Every structure is written in C-alpha cells, then in structure tokens.
Amino acid sequence: MYQETKKSEKITVVAEISAERKKVWQYYTEPRHIIRWNFASPDWHCPRARNEVCVGGQFFARMEARDGSFGFDYEAIYEEVQPEEFLSYALTDGRQVRVSFEEAGDRTRVSLSFDSEPNNSTGMQRDGWQAILNNFKKHVEES
After folding, report:
1. Which residues pair with 48 in a beta bridge?
2. How many angstroms separate the CA atoms of 140 and 128, rounded?
C-alpha cells in the first residue's frame, strides 16, 4: 500500500539581541555558553556540548529533561561557515539548518531557518526553536 511521506517545510525563527555581533557569535558557538541556553524550557537542560565551527566540523549537544525522564543527542556537520555572519549545517537525519547574524544598529538580528521534521507539527517545532532562541537572547543580554 502506498503511504505518502510528509514533505519538509522551511521554518524560520528570529531574535533581535542587544549586543554586538562578535559577542553574539561567540555566545552562539562556544560550548561553555551553549550549555547555558540550549533548551526550550526550564525543565530541560543541555549538560554537554562540543562544537568545531569549520566546514566539516561537528556540532554535538546533549539535551535532557531535568528529571531524567527523556533525553537526546543533537548532532550536525557544518557545511558552510562565515565567522560572525552565518553558518549552515546538516543534522544527522539530513535536515538543513542555516543561522545568520546581521548587524541591526546596536543590535544583532539572529535568523535561524530549518527544515521541519515529520513527527511534530510545524507550529510546535517553530515554538520550540523560538523558545531556544529566546533563551539564547536572554543569556547574551544578561551576561
């Protein structure tokens, strides 16, 4: 029997951060910062991260519920890297992600576009990735 596969959609989330682009890039790419913002809600955390920001380099983050009930590894390989401007990577399931860092006066606009996955609604995915980006914004602005 024929089963139609759900086609991936491109989803974009954006945050304007009150910080210079160099700092925003640093906080986005350094593991010591990634573990402080890479989760969507307070009941989750990111206990480990590794990041080799270069073409062919690997990104790894462990994401877990704080109560230990669930966790997963988020892994990708960088395909394009232009320091302080943009990076793109492929997740282990083949989906693509692109993150751009644009100067906007005394702020930095971070735009993150990603391919949706078939198991959750696009709205749920958009909300989750936006929550992580909002958590990133808060971490940068409070540091």
Report:
1. 62
2. 19
Cα torsion for 19, 97, 75, 133, to the nearest 10°? 30
Is this model's pTM higher than 0.85 or not?
yes
Beta-bridge mates of residue 72: 63
For 29-78, what is each residue's pLDDT tens digit? Answer: 999 999 999 999 999 999 999 999 999 999 999 999 999 999 999 999 99
User: In the numeric block, which tokens belong to residue 50?
Assistant: 């590794």
φ, ψ dihedrals at 133, nearest 5°: -65, -40
Query: β-strands 44-51, 86-91: how paired?
Result: unpaired
Beta strands in the chain (DSSP E): 10-17, 44-51, 58-65, 71-82, 86-91, 96-104, 107-115
**Measured distance CA(9)–CA(65) in Å, rounded:** 27
H/E stretch holding 125: helix 122-142
CA dihedral 45, 139, 29, 62 (to 10 degrees): 0
> What are the tokens at 100?
């751009």
CA-based end-to-end distance of the chain? 55
